[in-house]
Amino acid sequence: MALKYSRQRELIKDFLRERRDHPTADIVYRNVRLLNPNISLGTVYRNLALLTDRGEIRRLRLGDGTDHFDADISPHYHFICNKCGCVQDLQMDGMADIPDVDSLHFKGKITGRMTYFYGLCEQCCQNSGD
Prior knowledge:
Strand order of the largest sheet: 4-3-5
Number of helices: 4
Number of strands: 5
Largest sheet: 3 strands, mixed
Strand content: 15-25%
């Protein structure tokens, strides 16, 4: 089914495409509101859910209780800093060679996978001397 054009949805998608820091819905709202002061937080949440359901963006659940959003839906991994909480994209060769679990000892069907790496980001390492 074709989706009706929405200027608000386009503003949200454009904002996410420009970012590499995986913002939360509140950050999306505060920034998109600068361009469209009439947009509501509920509209932002509904559009983020719709874009996620349609596969146009990715929702990241990083364990901090807040969803983060990524417009880059290409296969890639994420690094989360244990100190400052920043989220960075990781491009890693060889990860695609990991066998699919469904071909091993799993009777269900795997439709995707998400792997997170944790540690200290470069900035936090420099600040702490690690």
